[in-house]
Amino acid sequence: MSGPTPPAHCTFDPEDWLRLARHWHPVARSGDISSAPVKATLLDEQLVLYRIKGDVVAARDICPHRGVPLTLGFHDDEGIICPYHGLRFGENGRCNRIPSSPDQPVPAKLHLTSYAVTERFGLIWVCLAPDSEQPAKLPTMPHWDDSGFQQINCPGFDVAGFAGRQVEGFLDVAHFAWVHTDTFADAANQLVPAYNPVETDYGFSVDYWSTVSNFAAGSPQQAPDGFEWLRRFEMHLPFTATLTIFFPGDAA
Predict the structure, then answer these.
(1) pLDDT tens digit string along 199-216?
(2) What is the CA 218 to chain-centroid distance, rounded?
(3) b/e string for 71-100 if b means 16 or more Cβ within 10 A?
Protein backbone atom coordinates (compact mmCIF):
# COMPACT_ATOMS: atom_id res chain seq x y z
CA MET A 1 0.00 0.00 0.00
CA SER A 2 1.44 3.37 -1.04
CA GLY A 3 0.85 6.75 0.52
CA PRO A 4 -0.01 7.53 4.15
CA THR A 5 -0.01 4.66 6.60
CA PRO A 6 -2.32 3.88 9.54
CA PRO A 7 -1.28 4.88 13.05
CA ALA A 8 0.37 2.41 15.39
CA HIS A 9 -2.02 -0.08 16.99
CA CYS A 10 -4.63 0.67 14.32
CA THR A 11 -7.67 -1.60 14.48
CA PHE A 12 -8.52 -1.14 10.78
CA ASP A 13 -7.31 -3.23 7.89
CA PRO A 14 -4.63 -1.03 6.22
CA GLU A 15 -6.46 -0.86 2.88
CA ASP A 16 -9.77 -0.03 4.60
CA TRP A 17 -8.04 2.64 6.69
CA LEU A 18 -6.66 4.32 3.58
CA ARG A 19 -10.03 4.23 1.82
CA LEU A 20 -11.65 5.95 4.79
CA ALA A 21 -8.74 8.34 5.35
CA ARG A 22 -9.29 9.76 1.84
CA HIS A 23 -12.63 11.21 2.96
CA TRP A 24 -13.67 14.11 5.17
CA HIS A 25 -14.93 13.25 8.66
CA PRO A 26 -16.46 15.55 11.30
CA VAL A 27 -14.44 15.43 14.52
CA ALA A 28 -15.84 18.30 16.65
CA ARG A 29 -18.30 21.16 16.77
CA SER A 30 -16.85 24.49 15.67
CA GLY A 31 -18.03 26.19 18.84
CA ASP A 32 -16.11 23.71 21.00
CA ILE A 33 -12.72 24.58 19.50
CA SER A 34 -10.90 27.62 20.82
CA SER A 35 -7.22 28.37 21.44
CA ALA A 36 -6.96 25.61 24.05
CA PRO A 37 -5.92 22.11 22.87
CA VAL A 38 -8.82 19.66 22.41
CA LYS A 39 -8.48 15.92 21.90
CA ALA A 40 -10.22 13.98 19.12
CA THR A 41 -9.81 10.51 17.61
CA LEU A 42 -10.26 9.79 13.89
CA LEU A 43 -9.69 6.32 12.43
CA ASP A 44 -7.55 5.48 15.47
CA GLU A 45 -5.37 8.56 14.92
CA GLN A 46 -5.12 10.66 18.08
CA LEU A 47 -5.58 14.31 17.18
CA VAL A 48 -5.11 17.65 18.86
CA LEU A 49 -7.37 20.47 17.70
CA TYR A 50 -6.86 24.16 18.43
CA ARG A 51 -7.68 27.54 16.96
CA ILE A 52 -5.05 30.14 16.14
CA LYS A 53 -5.86 33.53 14.61
CA GLY A 54 -9.31 32.25 13.70
CA ASP A 55 -8.11 29.15 11.87
CA VAL A 56 -8.33 25.59 13.18
CA VAL A 57 -5.31 23.30 13.26
CA ALA A 58 -5.73 19.52 13.35
CA ALA A 59 -2.52 17.64 14.08
CA ARG A 60 -1.21 14.40 15.51
CA ASP A 61 -1.50 14.63 19.29
CA ILE A 62 2.16 14.20 20.02
CA CYS A 63 4.98 16.64 20.60
CA PRO A 64 7.70 15.75 18.07
CA HIS A 65 10.37 16.55 20.65
CA ARG A 66 9.77 13.87 23.27
CA GLY A 67 6.39 12.38 22.42
CA VAL A 68 4.20 14.05 25.06
CA PRO A 69 0.49 14.41 24.15
CA LEU A 70 -0.11 18.08 23.44
CA THR A 71 -3.65 17.81 24.80
CA LEU A 72 -2.00 17.69 28.23
CA GLY A 73 -0.62 21.16 27.61
CA PHE A 74 -1.99 24.68 27.63
CA HIS A 75 -1.96 27.75 25.39
CA ASP A 76 -1.20 31.42 24.99
CA ASP A 77 -1.98 33.90 22.23
CA GLU A 78 0.58 32.35 19.88
CA GLY A 79 -0.27 28.65 20.07
CA ILE A 80 -0.43 25.55 22.22
CA ILE A 81 2.41 24.69 24.56
CA CYS A 82 3.87 21.29 25.41
CA PRO A 83 3.90 20.83 29.21
CA TYR A 84 7.26 18.98 29.19
CA HIS A 85 9.71 21.47 27.63
CA GLY A 86 7.49 24.38 26.67
CA LEU A 87 7.74 24.08 22.89
CA ARG A 88 4.96 26.13 21.33
CA PHE A 89 3.06 25.31 18.14
CA GLY A 90 1.07 27.92 16.23
CA GLU A 91 -0.24 28.38 12.71
CA ASN A 92 -0.25 25.26 10.54
CA GLY A 93 1.22 23.32 13.46
CA ARG A 94 4.60 25.00 13.11
CA CYS A 95 6.84 25.27 16.15
CA ASN A 96 7.43 28.95 16.89
CA ARG A 97 9.20 28.83 20.25
CA ILE A 98 11.86 26.69 21.94
CA PRO A 99 12.30 28.20 25.44
CA SER A 100 15.56 26.40 26.19
CA SER A 101 17.18 27.60 22.93
CA PRO A 102 15.45 30.86 21.98
CA ASP A 103 18.16 31.91 19.49
CA GLN A 104 18.34 28.60 17.67
CA PRO A 105 16.48 28.23 14.35
CA VAL A 106 13.54 25.83 14.71
CA PRO A 107 14.36 22.50 13.03
CA ALA A 108 11.76 21.36 10.50
CA LYS A 109 11.40 18.06 12.33
CA LEU A 110 9.86 19.90 15.28
CA HIS A 111 6.79 20.98 13.34
CA LEU A 112 3.60 19.01 14.01
CA THR A 113 2.19 16.43 11.63
CA SER A 114 -0.89 18.38 10.62
CA TYR A 115 -3.88 17.34 8.51
CA ALA A 116 -6.30 18.94 6.09
CA VAL A 117 -9.05 20.65 8.05
CA THR A 118 -12.06 22.82 7.21
CA GLU A 119 -15.19 24.18 8.89
CA ARG A 120 -18.67 23.72 7.50
CA PHE A 121 -22.19 23.30 8.93
CA GLY A 122 -20.92 24.22 12.39
CA LEU A 123 -18.51 21.28 12.40
CA ILE A 124 -14.77 20.70 12.11
CA TRP A 125 -13.97 18.28 9.28
CA VAL A 126 -10.62 16.49 8.90
CA CYS A 127 -9.15 14.48 6.03
CA LEU A 128 -6.13 12.41 7.04
CA ALA A 129 -4.96 11.39 3.56
CA PRO A 130 -6.31 13.62 0.76
CA ASP A 131 -6.20 12.18 -2.73
CA SER A 132 -4.76 14.86 -5.01
CA GLU A 133 -6.06 13.14 -8.15
CA GLN A 134 -9.59 12.48 -6.88
CA PRO A 135 -10.17 14.76 -3.88
CA ALA A 136 -13.13 13.82 -1.72
CA LYS A 137 -16.06 16.23 -1.54
CA LEU A 138 -17.65 17.50 1.63
CA PRO A 139 -21.33 16.61 2.09
CA THR A 140 -23.85 19.22 1.00
CA MET A 141 -26.68 20.70 3.05
CA PRO A 142 -28.34 23.13 0.64
CA HIS A 143 -30.62 24.81 3.21
CA TRP A 144 -27.99 25.35 5.91
CA ASP A 145 -27.59 29.07 5.20
CA ASP A 146 -31.19 29.73 4.14
CA SER A 147 -33.41 31.95 6.26
CA GLY A 148 -36.27 30.17 7.96
CA PHE A 149 -34.18 27.10 8.79
CA GLN A 150 -32.75 26.22 12.18
CA GLN A 151 -29.12 25.22 12.44
CA ILE A 152 -28.66 22.75 15.30
CA ASN A 153 -25.46 20.91 16.18
CA CYS A 154 -26.16 18.38 18.90
CA PRO A 155 -23.44 17.55 21.43
CA GLY A 156 -21.42 14.47 20.61
CA PHE A 157 -21.93 11.17 22.40
CA ASP A 158 -20.22 7.80 22.23
CA VAL A 159 -21.87 4.91 20.41
CA ALA A 160 -20.49 1.41 20.92
CA GLY A 161 -20.88 0.50 17.27
CA PHE A 162 -19.46 0.96 13.80
CA ALA A 163 -20.28 4.23 12.00
CA GLY A 164 -21.42 2.27 8.96
CA ARG A 165 -24.02 0.46 11.05
CA GLN A 166 -25.27 3.76 12.44
CA VAL A 167 -25.81 5.33 9.03
CA GLU A 168 -27.39 2.09 7.82
CA GLY A 169 -29.97 2.43 10.58
CA PHE A 170 -30.69 6.02 9.56
CA LEU A 171 -31.37 4.97 5.96
CA ASP A 172 -33.47 1.94 6.89
CA VAL A 173 -37.21 2.56 6.51
CA ALA A 174 -38.39 -0.97 7.32
CA HIS A 175 -37.87 -0.47 11.05
CA PHE A 176 -40.34 2.43 11.38
CA ALA A 177 -43.31 0.22 12.35
CA TRP A 178 -41.21 -1.66 14.91
CA VAL A 179 -39.16 1.05 16.59
CA HIS A 180 -40.82 4.46 16.17
CA THR A 181 -44.42 3.74 17.07
CA ASP A 182 -44.25 6.00 20.14
CA THR A 183 -43.39 9.00 17.96
CA PHE A 184 -44.56 8.99 14.34
CA ALA A 185 -44.94 5.47 12.93
CA ASP A 186 -47.92 3.10 12.86
CA ALA A 187 -47.40 -0.48 14.02
CA ALA A 188 -50.03 -1.63 11.52
CA ASN A 189 -48.31 0.10 8.59
CA GLN A 190 -45.42 -2.28 7.97
CA LEU A 191 -45.36 -2.26 4.17
CA VAL A 192 -42.29 -0.78 2.48
CA PRO A 193 -43.25 0.43 -1.03
CA ALA A 194 -40.68 -0.13 -3.76
CA TYR A 195 -38.06 2.57 -4.21
CA ASN A 196 -35.03 2.94 -6.48
CA PRO A 197 -31.73 4.39 -5.24
CA VAL A 198 -29.75 6.39 -7.81
CA GLU A 199 -25.97 6.35 -7.74
CA THR A 200 -24.29 9.76 -7.57
CA ASP A 201 -20.71 10.98 -7.63
CA TYR A 202 -20.86 11.32 -3.84
CA GLY A 203 -22.80 8.14 -2.97
CA PHE A 204 -26.47 7.70 -3.78
CA SER A 205 -29.87 9.35 -3.38
CA VAL A 206 -33.38 7.95 -3.23
CA ASP A 207 -36.93 9.30 -3.15
CA TYR A 208 -39.06 7.17 -0.82
CA TRP A 209 -42.85 7.61 -0.99
CA SER A 210 -45.05 6.12 1.72
CA THR A 211 -48.11 6.80 3.87
CA VAL A 212 -46.07 6.72 7.10
CA SER A 213 -46.77 10.11 8.65
CA ASN A 214 -44.14 12.44 9.97
CA PHE A 215 -46.56 14.18 12.34
CA ALA A 216 -46.30 12.95 15.90
CA ALA A 217 -48.80 10.32 16.97
CA GLY A 218 -51.74 12.01 18.69
CA SER A 219 -50.94 15.43 17.21
CA PRO A 220 -54.02 17.43 16.16
CA GLN A 221 -52.15 18.25 12.94
CA GLN A 222 -52.25 15.37 10.49
CA ALA A 223 -51.91 14.88 6.75
CA PRO A 224 -55.01 14.55 4.55
CA ASP A 225 -56.33 11.01 4.02
CA GLY A 226 -54.32 9.15 1.42
CA PHE A 227 -51.46 11.63 1.51
CA GLU A 228 -48.12 10.14 0.44
CA TRP A 229 -45.06 11.45 2.20
CA LEU A 230 -41.87 12.02 0.25
CA ARG A 231 -38.66 11.35 2.13
CA ARG A 232 -35.53 12.14 0.15
CA PHE A 233 -32.48 10.35 1.49
CA GLU A 234 -28.98 11.25 0.31
CA MET A 235 -25.94 9.22 1.26
CA HIS A 236 -22.56 10.97 1.17
CA LEU A 237 -19.66 8.57 1.44
CA PRO A 238 -18.48 7.34 3.76
CA PHE A 239 -20.77 8.01 6.76
CA THR A 240 -22.90 11.12 6.22
CA ALA A 241 -26.59 10.89 5.33
CA THR A 242 -29.21 13.62 4.96
CA LEU A 243 -32.99 13.42 4.95
CA THR A 244 -35.43 15.95 3.48
CA ILE A 245 -39.10 15.42 4.36
CA PHE A 246 -41.83 17.06 2.27
CA PHE A 247 -44.87 18.06 4.34
CA PRO A 248 -48.41 18.70 3.06
CA GLY A 249 -48.74 22.16 1.56
CA ASP A 250 -45.09 23.07 2.10
CA ALA A 251 -42.05 22.91 -0.17
CA ALA A 252 -40.16 20.79 2.37
Answers:
(1) 999 999 999 999 999 998
(2) 35
(3) bebebeeebbbbeeeebbbbeebbbebbee
